[in-house]
Amino acid sequence: MSGKGMGGHQSRTMEKDEWLTPPEILEALGPFDLDPCAPIKRPWSMAEKHYTKEDNGLFLPWEGRVWCNPPYLRREWRWLEKCAFHGNAIALTFARTETAQFFKQVWGKADGLLFIKERLHFYDVDGNRSNWNAGAPSVLVAYGDNNVESLRTSGITGALVEVWGV
Fold this sequence. Notes:
Elements: H1 23-29, E1 34-35, E2 49-50, E3 66-68, H2 76-86, E4 89-94, H3 100-107, E5 112-116, E6 138-143, H4 145-153, E7 158-162
Parallel strand pairs: 1-2, 3-4
Antiparallel strand pairs: 4-6, 5-6, 5-7
Helix pairs in contact: 2-3
């Protein structure tokens, strides 16, 4: 995968799987009670409580309102499945709307989607903004009506789609 970015066509080598959500996204949507996918080292908090890869948040109990920016290299869809089961979460993922897993974990279970207008620039764990964009469009996926309302009032530029069954 040499020479490719997160989405596969940018020029950055994908040497890691810890990409921080831009802080302005979190500020627009927050506060959150739990981030089950938090990096071990982080320059800012994503939620009141954090699980890291050492904790394996996929298998721990979730409580309250959850922020989920899952690892993009592995098991991404399992995180969205848990978001749907929990029912009170917002997840950030690539807008790969045509895939079978998107139909299974997003179209079939989410309450709303905010397709972000421009490609995001994620941050490194040292707090520096990446010079390269994500390489693919991103979407915020809301599970729970309160989270759809959060997308609606966030001020994040994009297109909101409320899902009512597929």
